[in-house]
Protein backbone atom coordinates (compact mmCIF):
# COMPACT_ATOMS: atom_id res chain seq x y z
CA UNK A 1 0.00 0.00 0.00
CA UNK A 2 2.82 2.34 0.96
CA UNK A 3 4.66 1.42 -2.23
CA UNK A 4 1.60 2.09 -4.38
CA UNK A 5 1.13 5.49 -2.76
CA UNK A 6 4.73 6.42 -3.41
CA UNK A 7 4.49 5.28 -7.03
CA UNK A 8 1.43 7.48 -7.59
CA UNK A 9 3.09 10.35 -5.78
CA UNK A 10 6.11 10.24 -8.06
CA UNK A 11 4.35 9.63 -11.39
CA UNK A 12 1.45 12.05 -11.61
CA UNK A 13 0.50 10.66 -15.03
CA UNK A 14 -1.00 7.57 -13.37
CA UNK A 15 -3.37 9.80 -11.43
CA UNK A 16 -4.49 11.33 -14.74
CA UNK A 17 -4.96 7.83 -16.09
CA UNK A 18 -7.14 6.80 -13.15
CA UNK A 19 -9.25 9.95 -13.49
CA UNK A 20 -9.78 9.36 -17.20
CA UNK A 21 -10.81 5.77 -16.42
CA UNK A 22 -13.34 6.95 -13.84
CA UNK A 23 -14.76 9.49 -16.31
CA UNK A 24 -15.03 6.82 -18.99
CA UNK A 25 -16.77 4.45 -16.54
CA UNK A 26 -19.27 7.19 -15.70
CA UNK A 27 -20.03 7.92 -19.35
CA UNK A 28 -20.33 4.21 -20.05
CA UNK A 29 -22.80 3.64 -17.19
CA UNK A 30 -24.85 6.64 -18.32
CA UNK A 31 -25.05 5.34 -21.90
CA UNK A 32 -25.91 1.86 -20.63
CA UNK A 33 -28.78 3.13 -18.54
CA UNK A 34 -30.03 5.33 -21.38
CA UNK A 35 -30.02 2.35 -23.71
CA UNK A 36 -32.01 0.28 -21.21
CA UNK A 37 -34.53 3.03 -20.58
CA UNK A 38 -35.15 3.54 -24.30
CA UNK A 39 -35.61 -0.19 -24.76
CA UNK A 40 -38.32 -0.32 -22.09
CA UNK A 41 -40.11 2.66 -23.65
CA UNK A 42 -39.88 1.01 -27.09
CA UNK A 43 -41.42 -2.17 -25.68
CA UNK A 44 -44.18 -0.15 -24.07
CA UNK A 45 -44.94 1.59 -27.36
CA UNK A 46 -44.90 -1.50 -29.54
CA UNK A 47 -46.46 -3.98 -27.14
CA UNK A 48 -49.75 -3.52 -25.30
CA UNK A 49 -50.67 0.14 -25.65
CA UNK A 50 -53.33 -0.07 -22.97
CA UNK A 51 -50.85 -1.17 -20.33
CA UNK A 52 -50.45 2.34 -19.00
CA UNK B 1 -36.06 19.03 -74.35
CA UNK B 2 -33.32 21.45 -75.34
CA UNK B 3 -35.74 23.68 -77.25
CA UNK B 4 -38.01 23.81 -74.18
CA UNK B 5 -35.05 24.63 -71.96
CA UNK B 6 -34.12 27.38 -74.39
CA UNK B 7 -37.67 28.72 -74.29
CA UNK B 8 -37.50 28.80 -70.48
CA UNK B 9 -34.23 30.65 -70.67
CA UNK B 10 -35.76 33.15 -73.11
CA UNK B 11 -38.65 33.66 -70.70
CA UNK B 12 -36.28 34.35 -67.81
CA UNK B 13 -34.20 36.65 -69.97
CA UNK B 14 -37.26 38.61 -71.08
CA UNK B 15 -38.58 39.08 -67.57
CA UNK B 16 -35.08 40.06 -66.49
CA UNK B 17 -34.77 42.61 -69.32
CA UNK B 18 -38.12 44.07 -68.35
CA UNK B 19 -37.18 44.79 -64.74
CA UNK B 20 -33.37 44.53 -64.85
CA UNK B 21 -33.53 43.67 -61.15
CA UNK B 22 -30.75 41.08 -61.06
CA UNK B 23 -28.43 42.89 -63.48
CA UNK B 24 -28.77 46.28 -61.80
CA UNK B 25 -28.26 44.96 -58.29
CA UNK B 26 -25.33 42.82 -59.42
CA UNK B 27 -23.52 45.67 -61.13
CA UNK B 28 -24.08 47.98 -58.18
CA UNK B 29 -22.94 45.26 -55.79
CA UNK B 30 -19.71 44.75 -57.74
CA UNK B 31 -18.99 48.48 -57.82
CA UNK B 32 -19.69 48.88 -54.10
CA UNK B 33 -17.60 45.86 -53.13
CA UNK B 34 -14.61 46.90 -55.23
CA UNK B 35 -14.70 50.50 -54.01
CA UNK B 36 -14.83 49.34 -50.38
CA UNK B 37 -11.75 47.22 -51.03
CA UNK B 38 -9.99 50.14 -52.74
CA UNK B 39 -10.81 52.48 -49.84
CA UNK B 40 -9.48 50.05 -47.29
CA UNK B 41 -6.31 49.45 -49.26
CA UNK B 42 -5.52 53.14 -49.63
CA UNK B 43 -1.94 53.61 -50.71
CA UNK B 44 -0.75 50.21 -49.54
CA UNK B 45 0.92 47.86 -51.97
CA UNK B 46 -0.91 44.55 -51.84
CA UNK B 47 0.55 41.26 -52.95
CA UNK B 48 -0.54 39.16 -55.92
CA UNK B 49 -1.89 36.35 -53.75
CA UNK B 50 -4.04 38.80 -51.81
CA UNK B 51 -5.40 40.33 -55.02
CA UNK B 52 -6.39 36.97 -56.51
CA UNK B 53 -8.05 36.10 -53.20
CA UNK B 54 -9.99 39.38 -53.23
CA UNK B 55 -10.98 38.74 -56.86
CA UNK B 56 -12.81 35.56 -55.86
CA UNK B 57 -14.23 37.11 -52.69
CA UNK B 58 -15.94 39.77 -54.80
CA UNK B 59 -17.17 37.13 -57.26
CA UNK B 60 -18.52 34.90 -54.48
CA UNK B 61 -20.47 37.61 -52.73
CA UNK B 62 -21.88 39.14 -55.89
CA UNK B 63 -22.98 35.68 -57.02
CA UNK B 64 -24.68 35.23 -53.66
CA UNK B 65 -26.52 38.52 -54.08
CA UNK B 66 -27.90 37.83 -57.55
CA UNK B 67 -28.07 34.16 -58.47
CA UNK B 68 -30.88 33.06 -56.17
CA UNK B 69 -33.30 35.21 -58.22
CA UNK B 70 -33.95 32.53 -60.85
CA UNK B 71 -35.85 30.23 -58.51
CA UNK B 72 -36.94 32.58 -55.76
CA UNK B 73 -38.74 34.78 -58.31
CA UNK B 74 -40.78 31.79 -59.51
CA UNK B 75 -41.90 31.05 -55.95
CA UNK B 76 -42.67 34.70 -55.28
CA UNK B 77 -44.76 35.08 -58.40
CA UNK B 78 -46.40 31.74 -57.72
CA UNK B 79 -45.54 30.51 -61.20
CA UNK B 80 -43.67 27.39 -60.12
CA UNK B 81 -46.87 25.32 -60.28
CA UNK B 82 -47.35 26.22 -63.93
CA UNK B 83 -43.78 25.25 -64.62
CA UNK B 84 -44.49 21.87 -63.00
CA UNK B 85 -47.23 21.28 -65.53
CA UNK B 86 -45.47 22.30 -68.72
CA UNK B 87 -41.92 21.03 -68.27
CA UNK B 88 -39.97 18.14 -66.81
CA UNK B 89 -37.63 18.88 -63.87
CA UNK B 90 -34.44 18.48 -65.88
CA UNK B 91 -35.76 20.94 -68.50
CA UNK B 92 -36.53 23.49 -65.81
CA UNK B 93 -33.09 23.02 -64.34
CA UNK B 94 -31.42 23.40 -67.75
CA UNK B 95 -33.30 26.61 -68.43
CA UNK B 96 -32.38 28.13 -65.08
CA UNK B 97 -28.80 26.91 -65.42
CA UNK B 98 -28.36 28.56 -68.84
CA UNK B 99 -29.72 31.81 -67.46
CA UNK B 100 -27.43 31.71 -64.42
CA UNK B 101 -24.43 30.75 -66.57
CA UNK B 102 -24.92 33.81 -68.77
CA UNK B 103 -25.39 35.99 -65.70
CA UNK B 104 -22.23 34.62 -64.05
CA UNK B 105 -20.16 35.05 -67.20
CA UNK B 106 -21.25 38.68 -67.68
CA UNK B 107 -20.73 39.48 -64.02
CA UNK B 108 -17.30 37.88 -63.77
CA UNK B 109 -16.09 39.48 -66.98
CA UNK B 110 -17.00 42.86 -65.51
CA UNK B 111 -15.19 41.97 -62.28
CA UNK B 112 -12.11 40.79 -64.17
CA UNK B 113 -11.96 43.92 -66.32
CA UNK B 114 -12.42 46.19 -63.31
CA UNK B 115 -9.76 44.31 -61.36
CA UNK B 116 -7.18 44.53 -64.13
CA UNK B 117 -7.83 48.27 -64.47
CA UNK B 118 -7.94 49.15 -60.79
CA UNK B 119 -5.44 46.81 -59.13
CA UNK B 120 -1.76 47.15 -59.95
CA UNK B 121 -0.92 43.65 -58.81
CA UNK B 122 -3.64 42.04 -60.92
CA UNK B 123 -1.85 41.56 -64.24
CA UNK B 124 -2.78 38.47 -66.22
CA UNK B 125 0.50 37.16 -67.60
CA UNK B 126 -0.76 33.82 -68.90
CA UNK B 127 -4.04 34.70 -70.51
CA UNK B 128 -4.88 31.22 -71.83
CA UNK B 129 -4.53 29.68 -68.36
CA UNK B 130 -6.63 32.44 -66.85
CA UNK B 131 -9.34 31.98 -69.49
CA UNK B 132 -9.55 28.20 -68.95
CA UNK B 133 -9.66 28.59 -65.16
CA UNK B 134 -12.20 31.39 -65.51
CA UNK B 135 -14.53 29.33 -67.73
CA UNK B 136 -14.40 26.20 -65.56
CA UNK B 137 -14.68 28.24 -62.37
CA UNK B 138 -17.74 30.05 -63.69
CA UNK B 139 -19.44 26.83 -64.75
CA UNK B 140 -18.88 25.33 -61.30
CA UNK B 141 -20.10 28.49 -59.59
CA UNK B 142 -23.25 28.62 -61.73
CA UNK B 143 -24.13 24.93 -61.27
CA UNK B 144 -23.62 24.86 -57.51
CA UNK B 145 -25.44 28.14 -56.92
CA UNK B 146 -28.37 27.09 -59.13
CA UNK B 147 -29.07 23.88 -57.20
CA UNK B 148 -28.66 25.66 -53.86
CA UNK B 149 -31.03 28.39 -55.11
CA UNK B 150 -33.59 25.68 -55.85
CA UNK B 151 -33.26 24.34 -52.29
CA UNK B 152 -33.53 27.84 -50.84
CA UNK B 153 -36.63 28.73 -52.85
CA UNK B 154 -38.40 25.61 -51.55
CA UNK B 155 -37.20 26.18 -48.00
CA UNK B 156 -38.99 29.51 -47.85
CA UNK B 157 -36.03 31.24 -46.20
CA UNK B 158 -34.83 33.55 -48.88
CA UNK B 159 -31.98 35.91 -48.08
CA UNK B 160 -29.55 34.98 -45.36
CA UNK B 161 -29.49 31.22 -45.76
CA UNK B 162 -28.19 31.34 -49.35
CA UNK B 163 -24.55 32.30 -48.70
CA UNK B 164 -24.52 30.08 -45.59
CA UNK B 165 -25.49 27.02 -47.60
CA UNK B 166 -23.39 27.85 -50.65
CA UNK B 167 -20.10 28.67 -48.99
CA UNK B 168 -19.06 25.17 -47.85
CA UNK B 169 -20.13 23.74 -51.21
CA UNK B 170 -18.20 26.36 -53.18
CA UNK B 171 -15.14 26.38 -50.90
CA UNK B 172 -13.08 23.78 -52.82
CA UNK B 173 -13.84 25.53 -56.11
CA UNK B 174 -12.94 28.97 -54.77
CA UNK B 175 -9.73 27.80 -53.08
CA UNK B 176 -8.54 26.14 -56.29
CA UNK B 177 -9.57 29.08 -58.45
CA UNK B 178 -7.67 31.49 -56.19
CA UNK B 179 -4.62 29.29 -56.70
CA UNK B 180 -5.17 29.24 -60.48
CA UNK B 181 -5.64 33.00 -60.69
CA UNK B 182 -2.45 33.49 -58.73
CA UNK B 183 -0.59 31.13 -61.08
CA UNK B 184 -1.87 32.92 -64.16
CA UNK B 185 -0.86 36.26 -62.66
CA UNK B 186 2.60 34.91 -62.03
CA UNK B 187 2.77 33.73 -65.63
CA UNK B 188 3.03 30.03 -64.86
CA UNK B 189 2.43 27.60 -67.72
CA UNK B 190 -0.21 24.87 -67.95
CA UNK B 191 2.22 22.20 -66.75
CA UNK B 192 2.46 23.87 -63.34
CA UNK B 193 -1.30 24.24 -62.97
CA UNK B 194 -2.52 20.91 -64.35
CA UNK B 195 -3.42 19.47 -60.94
CA UNK B 196 -5.57 22.45 -60.01
CA UNK B 197 -7.21 22.46 -63.45
CA UNK B 198 -8.04 18.77 -63.03
CA UNK B 199 -9.67 19.51 -59.66
CA UNK B 200 -11.80 22.32 -61.07
CA UNK B 201 -12.82 20.17 -64.03
CA UNK B 202 -13.76 17.23 -61.74
CA UNK B 203 -15.72 19.57 -59.51
CA UNK B 204 -17.73 20.80 -62.52
CA UNK B 205 -18.51 17.28 -63.75
CA UNK B 206 -19.45 15.97 -60.29
CA UNK B 207 -21.63 18.96 -59.49
CA UNK B 208 -23.37 18.85 -62.87
CA UNK B 209 -24.29 15.16 -62.60
CA UNK B 210 -25.14 15.47 -58.93
CA UNK B 211 -27.46 18.43 -59.37
CA UNK B 212 -29.28 16.91 -62.37
CA UNK B 213 -29.90 13.75 -60.34
CA UNK B 214 -31.01 15.58 -57.20
CA UNK B 215 -33.05 18.36 -58.76
CA UNK B 216 -36.00 15.98 -59.32
CA UNK B 217 -36.35 15.53 -55.55
CA UNK B 218 -36.19 19.24 -54.86
CA UNK B 219 -38.67 20.14 -57.58
CA UNK B 220 -41.30 17.44 -56.94
CA UNK B 221 -42.44 17.70 -53.35
CA UNK C 1 -24.40 -7.24 -24.04
CA UNK C 2 -21.06 -8.88 -24.84
CA UNK C 3 -20.05 -6.13 -27.22
CA UNK C 4 -20.75 -3.50 -24.58
CA UNK C 5 -18.34 -5.13 -22.14
CA UNK C 6 -15.88 -5.49 -25.02
CA UNK C 7 -16.25 -1.78 -25.80
CA UNK C 8 -15.73 -0.85 -22.14
CA UNK C 9 -12.58 -2.93 -21.82
CA UNK C 10 -11.25 -1.76 -25.18
CA UNK C 11 -11.57 1.95 -24.49
CA UNK C 12 -10.33 1.52 -20.91
CA UNK C 13 -7.26 -0.25 -22.27
CA UNK C 14 -6.74 2.45 -24.89
CA UNK C 15 -6.90 5.20 -22.26
CA UNK C 16 -4.45 3.35 -20.01
CA UNK C 17 -2.08 2.70 -22.89
CA UNK C 18 -2.45 6.10 -24.48
CA UNK C 19 -1.85 8.04 -21.28
CA UNK C 20 0.47 5.96 -19.17
CA UNK C 21 2.69 3.94 -21.51
CA UNK C 22 6.15 5.46 -21.38
CA UNK C 23 7.95 6.99 -24.35
CA UNK C 24 11.58 5.85 -24.58
CA UNK C 25 14.33 6.50 -27.13
CA UNK C 26 14.72 2.84 -28.08
CA UNK C 27 11.60 0.79 -27.37
CA UNK C 28 12.12 -2.83 -26.33
CA UNK C 29 9.16 -3.98 -24.29
CA UNK C 30 5.70 -4.21 -25.86
CA UNK C 31 4.40 -1.31 -23.78
CA UNK C 32 7.02 1.25 -24.82
CA UNK C 33 6.50 3.88 -27.49
CA UNK C 34 9.27 5.30 -29.67
CA UNK C 35 10.47 8.86 -29.18
CA UNK C 36 9.45 11.09 -32.07
CA UNK C 37 11.79 14.09 -32.33
CA UNK C 38 10.02 17.40 -31.82
CA UNK C 39 6.82 15.85 -30.46
CA UNK C 40 7.84 13.76 -27.45
CA UNK C 41 4.87 13.18 -25.11
CA UNK C 42 2.71 15.32 -27.42
CA UNK C 43 2.61 12.43 -29.90
CA UNK C 44 0.14 10.61 -27.67
CA UNK C 45 -2.64 12.90 -28.92
CA UNK C 46 -3.01 10.56 -31.86
CA UNK C 47 -4.93 8.05 -29.73
CA UNK C 48 -7.67 10.51 -28.81
CA UNK C 49 -7.69 13.33 -31.35
CA UNK C 50 -7.60 11.35 -34.59
CA UNK C 51 -10.60 9.15 -33.61
CA UNK C 52 -12.76 12.25 -33.07
CA UNK C 53 -11.85 13.61 -36.51
CA UNK C 54 -12.42 10.14 -37.98
CA UNK C 55 -15.85 9.94 -36.32
CA UNK C 56 -16.93 13.31 -37.68
CA UNK C 57 -16.22 11.95 -41.17
CA UNK C 58 -17.96 8.62 -40.40
CA UNK C 59 -20.98 10.52 -39.09
CA UNK C 60 -21.07 12.54 -42.29
CA UNK C 61 -21.02 9.34 -44.33
CA UNK C 62 -23.85 7.82 -42.27
CA UNK C 63 -25.79 11.05 -42.70
CA UNK C 64 -25.41 10.80 -46.50
CA UNK C 65 -26.25 7.09 -46.62
CA UNK C 66 -29.49 7.63 -44.74
CA UNK C 67 -30.25 10.73 -46.84
CA UNK C 68 -30.04 8.59 -49.98
CA UNK C 69 -32.20 5.95 -48.28
CA UNK C 70 -34.76 8.59 -47.38
CA UNK C 71 -34.93 9.94 -50.94
CA UNK C 72 -35.52 6.40 -52.25
CA UNK C 73 -38.06 5.13 -49.73
CA UNK C 74 -39.48 8.36 -48.23
CA UNK C 75 -39.46 6.77 -44.79
CA UNK C 76 -39.23 9.38 -42.03
CA UNK C 77 -37.34 6.93 -39.79
CA UNK C 78 -34.38 7.26 -42.15
CA UNK C 79 -34.54 11.01 -41.70
CA UNK C 80 -34.35 10.52 -37.92
CA UNK C 81 -31.31 8.31 -38.44
CA UNK C 82 -29.52 10.86 -40.58
CA UNK C 83 -30.40 13.59 -38.09
CA UNK C 84 -28.99 11.60 -35.17
CA UNK C 85 -25.84 10.90 -37.20
CA UNK C 86 -25.36 14.60 -37.92
CA UNK C 87 -25.93 15.56 -34.30
CA UNK C 88 -23.12 13.28 -33.20
CA UNK C 89 -21.08 14.41 -36.19
CA UNK C 90 -21.13 18.06 -35.19
CA UNK C 91 -20.22 17.16 -31.59
CA UNK C 92 -17.20 15.14 -32.67
CA UNK C 93 -16.29 17.78 -35.24
CA UNK C 94 -16.17 20.45 -32.54
CA UNK C 95 -14.20 18.10 -30.27
CA UNK C 96 -11.66 17.42 -33.02
CA UNK C 97 -11.30 21.13 -33.76
CA UNK C 98 -10.87 22.13 -30.12
CA UNK C 99 -8.53 19.29 -29.11
CA UNK C 100 -6.48 19.93 -32.23
CA UNK C 101 -6.25 23.66 -31.55
CA UNK C 102 -5.23 23.21 -27.91
CA UNK C 103 -2.61 20.68 -28.90
CA UNK C 104 -1.33 22.85 -31.76
CA UNK C 105 -0.65 25.74 -29.37
CA UNK C 106 1.98 23.64 -27.61
CA UNK C 107 3.28 21.59 -30.53
CA UNK C 108 3.27 24.13 -33.37
CA UNK C 109 3.16 27.41 -31.45
CA UNK C 110 -0.29 28.77 -32.34
CA UNK C 111 -3.87 27.67 -31.91
CA UNK C 112 -4.77 27.99 -35.56
CA UNK C 113 -2.50 28.17 -38.59
CA UNK C 114 -4.73 27.21 -41.55
CA UNK C 115 -2.96 23.97 -42.09
CA UNK C 116 -4.85 22.08 -44.88
CA UNK C 117 -6.31 19.62 -42.38
CA UNK C 118 -7.45 22.45 -40.15
CA UNK C 119 -9.11 24.00 -43.20
CA UNK C 120 -10.83 20.69 -43.93
CA UNK C 121 -12.21 20.25 -40.44
CA UNK C 122 -13.36 23.86 -40.53
CA UNK C 123 -15.17 23.24 -43.83
CA UNK C 124 -16.78 20.13 -42.33
CA UNK C 125 -17.92 22.22 -39.37
CA UNK C 126 -19.39 24.79 -41.78
CA UNK C 127 -21.25 22.07 -43.68
CA UNK C 128 -22.77 20.69 -40.49
CA UNK C 129 -23.71 24.21 -39.40
CA UNK C 130 -25.34 24.98 -42.74
CA UNK C 131 -27.21 21.67 -42.65
CA UNK C 132 -28.71 22.43 -39.25
CA UNK C 133 -29.52 25.99 -40.33
CA UNK C 134 -31.37 24.63 -43.36
CA UNK C 135 -33.34 22.16 -41.22
CA UNK C 136 -34.35 24.79 -38.71
CA UNK C 137 -35.75 27.02 -41.45
CA UNK C 138 -38.34 24.51 -42.72
CA UNK C 139 -41.59 23.75 -40.95
CA UNK C 140 -43.05 20.81 -42.85
CA UNK C 141 -41.56 17.45 -41.89
CA UNK C 142 -41.43 15.85 -45.32
CA UNK C 143 -40.10 18.96 -47.00
CA UNK C 144 -37.44 19.34 -44.31
CA UNK C 145 -36.36 15.74 -44.73
CA UNK C 146 -36.22 15.96 -48.54
CA UNK C 147 -34.37 19.27 -48.78
CA UNK C 148 -31.87 18.47 -46.06
CA UNK C 149 -31.22 15.07 -47.68
CA UNK C 150 -30.50 16.75 -51.00
CA UNK C 151 -28.19 19.23 -49.33
CA UNK C 152 -26.36 16.51 -47.42
CA UNK C 153 -25.71 14.59 -50.64
CA UNK C 154 -24.47 17.69 -52.48
CA UNK C 155 -22.21 18.53 -49.55
CA UNK C 156 -20.92 14.97 -49.49
CA UNK C 157 -19.83 15.35 -53.13
CA UNK C 158 -17.37 18.07 -52.09
CA UNK C 159 -16.08 16.40 -48.93
CA UNK C 160 -13.63 14.00 -50.63
CA UNK C 161 -11.83 17.07 -51.88
CA UNK C 162 -11.30 18.42 -48.37
CA UNK C 163 -10.53 15.16 -46.65
CA UNK C 164 -8.43 13.34 -49.22
CA UNK C 165 -7.06 15.65 -51.90
CA UNK C 166 -6.28 18.98 -50.29
CA UNK C 167 -4.26 17.79 -47.25
CA UNK C 168 -2.06 15.73 -49.57
CA UNK C 169 -1.27 18.36 -52.20
CA UNK C 170 -0.77 21.41 -50.01
CA UNK C 171 2.15 21.83 -47.69
CA UNK C 172 1.19 21.66 -44.06
CA UNK C 173 2.10 20.71 -40.55
CA UNK C 174 0.18 17.47 -40.14
CA UNK C 175 1.95 14.22 -40.92
CA UNK C 176 1.27 13.08 -44.48
CA UNK C 177 1.38 16.58 -46.04
CA UNK C 178 3.09 17.23 -49.34
CA UNK C 179 6.29 18.63 -47.83
CA UNK C 180 6.58 15.89 -45.23
CA UNK C 181 9.67 13.87 -46.03
CA UNK C 182 7.96 10.79 -44.61
CA UNK C 183 5.05 11.28 -47.02
CA UNK C 184 2.66 8.43 -47.18
CA UNK C 185 -0.27 7.29 -45.14
CA UNK C 186 -0.47 9.15 -41.85
CA UNK C 187 -0.46 5.94 -39.88
CA UNK C 188 3.05 4.90 -40.90
CA UNK C 189 4.38 8.15 -39.55
CA UNK C 190 7.24 7.13 -37.32
CA UNK C 191 5.03 4.89 -35.23
CA UNK C 192 6.24 1.49 -34.21
CA UNK C 193 4.14 -1.66 -34.28
CA UNK C 194 2.51 -1.43 -30.89
CA UNK C 195 1.77 2.27 -31.26
CA UNK C 196 -0.05 1.48 -34.52
CA UNK C 197 -1.88 -1.39 -32.82
CA UNK C 198 -3.15 0.84 -30.04
CA UNK C 199 -4.05 3.53 -32.56
CA UNK C 200 -6.21 1.09 -34.51
CA UNK C 201 -7.73 -0.32 -31.31
CA UNK C 202 -8.64 3.24 -30.37
CA UNK C 203 -10.24 3.83 -33.79
CA UNK C 204 -12.25 0.61 -33.46
CA UNK C 205 -13.32 1.43 -29.90
CA UNK C 206 -14.43 4.94 -30.77
CA UNK C 207 -16.30 3.67 -33.84
CA UNK C 208 -18.25 1.15 -31.75
CA UNK C 209 -18.98 3.90 -29.22
CA UNK C 210 -20.22 6.10 -32.06
CA UNK C 211 -22.61 3.47 -33.37
CA UNK C 212 -23.96 2.87 -29.88
CA UNK C 213 -24.58 6.56 -29.25
CA UNK C 214 -26.08 6.87 -32.70
CA UNK C 215 -28.55 4.03 -32.11
CA UNK C 216 -29.63 5.59 -28.81
CA UNK C 217 -30.04 8.92 -30.59
CA UNK C 218 -32.15 7.76 -33.51
CA UNK C 219 -34.27 5.40 -31.41
CA UNK C 220 -35.22 8.25 -29.12
CA UNK C 221 -36.05 10.43 -32.14
CA UNK C 222 -38.26 7.73 -33.67
CA UNK C 223 -40.01 7.26 -30.31
CA UNK C 224 -40.64 10.99 -30.10
CA UNK C 225 -42.19 10.92 -33.59
CA UNK C 226 -44.43 8.01 -32.64
CA UNK C 227 -45.64 9.70 -29.48
CA UNK C 228 -46.37 12.89 -31.43
CA UNK C 229 -48.43 10.97 -33.98
CA UNK C 230 -50.38 9.13 -31.27
CA UNK C 231 -51.22 12.32 -29.42
CA UNK C 232 -52.46 13.87 -32.68
CA UNK C 233 -54.74 10.87 -33.30
CA UNK C 234 -56.27 10.93 -29.84
Question: How would you describe this structure to a colleague?
Answer:
- The complex is a heterotrimer of chains A (52), B (221) and C (234).
- Chain A has helices at 2-10, 12-46.
- Chain A is built from two helices and no strands.
- With 52 residues, chain A is mainly α.
- Chain B is mainly alpha-helical.
- Chain B is globular, with a radius of gyration of 18 Å.
- Chain C is mostly helical.
- Chain C has one domain (44-233).
- Chain C is 71% helix and 2% strand.
- Chain C has helices at residues 2-20, 49-73, 76-107, 116-136, 141-169, 193-233, and strands at 23-24, 33-34.
- Chains in contact: A-C, B-C.
- Chains B and C meet through α7, α8 and α9 of B and α4 and α5 of C.
- Which structural class matches the secondary elements of chain B? mainly alpha
- Bin the helical content of chain B: over 70%
The helix fraction of chain C, in percent, is over 70%
Going by helix content, strand content and strand pairing, the class of chain C is mainly alpha
- Mean pLDDT across every amino acid position of chain B: 86
Distance between the termini of chain C: 37 Å
Distance between the termini of chain B: 22 Å
The main sheet of chain C orders its strands as 1-2
Features:
heterotrimer, B: mainly alpha, C: 234 residues, two-stranded parallel ribbon
Break the fold down into its secondary structure elements and pairings.
The complex is a heterotrimer of chains A (52), B (221) and C (234).
Chain A (H helix, E strand, L loop, with lengths): L1 H9 L1 H35 L6
Chain B lengths: L1 H18 L1 H21 L6 H19 L2 H9 L2 H7 L2 H30 L8 H29 L5 H26 L3 H30 L2
Chain C lengths: L1 H19 L2 E2 L8 E2 L14 H25 L2 H32 L8 H21 L4 H29 L23 H41 L1
Parallel strand pairs in C: 1-2
Helix pairs in contact in C: 1-6, 2-3, 2-5, 2-6, 3-4, 3-6, 4-5
Amino acid sequence: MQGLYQLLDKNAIYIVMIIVLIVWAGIFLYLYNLDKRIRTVEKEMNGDKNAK
Amino acid sequence: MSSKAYALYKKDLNSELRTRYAVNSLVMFIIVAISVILFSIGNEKITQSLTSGLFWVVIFFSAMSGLSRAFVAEEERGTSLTLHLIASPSTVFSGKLIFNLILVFCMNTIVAVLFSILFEAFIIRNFALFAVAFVFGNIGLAVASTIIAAIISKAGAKGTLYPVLSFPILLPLILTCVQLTLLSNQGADFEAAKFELAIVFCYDVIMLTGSYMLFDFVWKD
Amino acid sequence: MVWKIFLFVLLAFVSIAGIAFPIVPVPHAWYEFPLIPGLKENAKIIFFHVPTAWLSAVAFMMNTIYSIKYLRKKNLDDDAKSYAAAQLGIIFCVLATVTGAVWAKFAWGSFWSWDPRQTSIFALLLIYGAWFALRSSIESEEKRATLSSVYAIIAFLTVPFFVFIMPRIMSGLHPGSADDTNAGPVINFKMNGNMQLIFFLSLIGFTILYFWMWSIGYRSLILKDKINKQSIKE
